[in-house]
Specification:
InterPro entries: YqgQ-like, YqgQ-like_sf. By secondary structure, this protein is mainly α. The protein has helices at residues 4-13, 23-39, 45-69.
Length: 70
């Protein structure tokens, strides 16, 4: 798992589609959903860690992008 698209595809396997309308909020919601899947024992630890790492980087990149617009 290397991209946000990969994380979206993982969530899609469990019937979860996230679109809030704000990319930053989408990423945060995906983090919540991934954590819920892990806490429920549905996904393995390594899958959880990889997904969270991707989302954390995407979140940081999006924050930097939005700050650059101001």
């Amino acid at each position: 798992m290397r991209t946000m698209y990969d994380v979206q595809q993982l969530l899609k396997q469990f019937g979860t589609f996230i679109y809030v309308g704000n990319r930053l909020w989408d990423i945060e919601m995906m983090q919540i959903e991934i954590r819920e899947l892990y806490d429920s024992g549905v996904i393995e630890r390594q899958v959880f860690l990889n997904a969270m790492m991707v989302l954390k980087k995407e979140h940081q990149d999006e924050l930097e992008y939005q700050e650059g617009l101001n």
